Structure formats: C-alpha cells, structure tokens
Amino acid sequence: MYQNLGFPDRLRLLEEQAAVLRATVASAPSLDAQVPTCPGWTLWDLVQHMGAGQCYWGAVVAAGPADAPPGGREDFADAAPRERETLLAWSATATRRMVDAFRDAGADAPCWTWWEDSESPQTAGAVAWHQLVEMSVHIYDAQVTVGDGQPVPTEVALDAIGDILSTGCATSSAWPHEPAELDFVAAEGPAWRLSLSADGARSARLPQADAAPADATMRGTAHELVMTFYDRLQIADAEVVGSRRLFELLRDWEPE
Q1: C-alpha–C-alpha distance, residues 57 and 111, integer Å
Q2: Contact at 8 Å (CB) between 175 and 249?
Q3: What is the largest CA-CA distance in the chain?
Q4: pTM of the model
Q5: Strands 200-206 and 216-220
Q6: Could you write out the three-class secondary structure of 105-160?
Q7: What is the pLDDT of residues 34-48, one digit of tens each?
Q8: Which H or E element spans position 241?
Q9: By CB distance 3.0 to 4.6 Å, which of 58, 105, 110, 111 could disulfide with 98?
Q10: C-alpha distances in Å from residue 155, one per residue of 107, 117, 163, 202
Q11: Mean pLDDT over all residues of the chain?
Q12: Of 220, 216, 242, which is closest to residue 233 (Cα–Cα)?
C-alpha cells in the first residue's frame, strides 16, 4: 500500500484544499451553476455534499470502533444554508470539525468504514487519506464549473492513486473474468499494479523500470490517472498499452 503523504500532511492539505474549494465557489456567478462533471448537481449541491460528508466522517472518527456508522450522511445535509456567505461559513466549520476529530483521534485510531474488505485499514488515518482524494476531485469539479479547471497538485494526486487502488479496488471478492494484471504508471515516476483473479484484487507499488509486462498498462500524469479513475476523463482517451477492455471491465465491476 503506497502512501505518498503522512497523516499530518494530509490534515494540512485537507484544510488548504477545502479553502481552495470555498474560494472557487465564492468566485462563481451563482450557486445555481450546473457542475458539468457531476450531472444534475449545482455548485450548492457540491458544497452541501462535501460539508455533510465532512460532518459525517468527523462523527464516525469521533465515535471510535463500531459495527455501524453513527447515523447517515443525510443527517447533516439539511443543515446546509442556501445563502452563499453562510453556506461557505458552514463548509468551513464542517472542515474544521472533521480535521479536529482526526487530530484528536490520531492516525491509528480504529473506526467504522465502508471498506472493511479492502487493503486499507479501518482507521482515522485511512479516512483522512480518502477524504483528501474526495476533496481534490470535487475541487476540480468546482473549478471546471467556473471555467478554470486545474490539475490536482502532484503530491496529492500521487497519494490519491494509492488510496484508489487499496481502498476502492482491492477486495477479496472474486474477479469474474480471466485473471489479469493492470499497471498504472504516473509520468512523475511511481507505478502500481492491480492483480485480478478468483481470489480478488490486490494492489502493489512497483519499481517502474523493473516491472514485468502486465496485460495492460495505463500511462499519464498522476492527475490524469486520478481523473480517469473518477470518470472525469474517459478510458477511451487514456494512453493504454495492451487491452483497453480490461480497464473498462474494471470500471464496470461491482464486487459483492
């Protein structure tokens, strides 16, 4: 499980990135602006989604070890104001409360997560890791909405790939197709392999120059790889060596 950043860096970046999101939304002509990368959402919906999620995960981490989360995300969504200034203030409070919960708990504190079958631990540190990825993708969504889409910062994007593979892809559920190995190679240097078989999916960090050939390899900047994972960029447009169809099967796979 490759992690580019440590826990304190993630907390710092969560606060910094959240401020970028709010500044982007503050610059928009209207909260009713449609988000092209999230069909059906306005900027208000985007901020509500992120703020409610931060309140929710802060409560999850503060609750400690549990077999179920303390309520649902929707429990926090109704609190989002409709007026821009108060909405952004609510968002800032949500970020602060979540980050404070992470700091109070510590990186290794156990808590409930939805990824119990993945390679990522069920800890506050892993939640912070995933929340930074979510924040970065939604900042891009907001920036695209105002006509100023920027690449995810390289250190964040490289960190995100590890989370995407170990949290979002790794599972013990059987891969329903022929066994395959898929490589993801960032232009900045790091490379990863996802091995798919009847035993499930497992990820590994690779020494790029020494890696044996995979069944298919996707190459791009770390930002491009992250955005392809999150369907902001299309697999059809990615640089792929080998079977592009394997990446499409991975995209469409819904493990039990």
Answers
A1: 10
A2: no
A3: 55
A4: 0.93
A5: unpaired
A6: HCCCCECCCCCCCCCCCCEHHHHHHHHHHHHHHHHHHHHHHCCCCCCCCHHHHHHH
A7: 999 999 999 999 999
A8: strand 239-242
A9: 58
A10: 19, 27, 13, 23
A11: 94
A12: 220
